[in-house]
Amino acid sequence: MEYKLNFKEYNEALKQNKLLGLKCKSCGIVTVPPKMVCRSCAGPDLEVMELKGNGRIQTFTSCNVAAEGREDEVPYTILLVELDEGPWIMGNLVGVEPEKATMEALIGKKVKMTEANVFAGDKYSAGEGASPAFVLEA
Fold this sequence. Notes:
Layout: H1 7-15, E1 19-24, E2 30-31, E3 46-51, E4 54-63, E5 76-83, E6 88-93, H2 103-106, E7 110-119, E8 129-136
């Protein structure tokens, strides 16, 4: 069995501000980030698709302790977003100070993906990485 979309391809697409996922040809469920089989039916017949990157915030947390080599990035807010296409994905919130990130201000609010957060690799990774970044919709 081979990956239809491997993590390197997914990561490179994020760096180009494209969010890729996999749609199951059997049940229609969309999976993000990439996996070898469908997250719902475990079917291997998947096709790569570009997602819009729009969704709603389900939960969040603010981080005050940086990962190694990323000390200049704290504090920041991480979201769990339910995308319009169905899957839930983690990403950073930009445009809102972490001190103003409250349940009332964020939960259920619409967001859209913006320029990805690209970061240098560390001794635990295979090099430069990227994560989705989201902004609140007006």
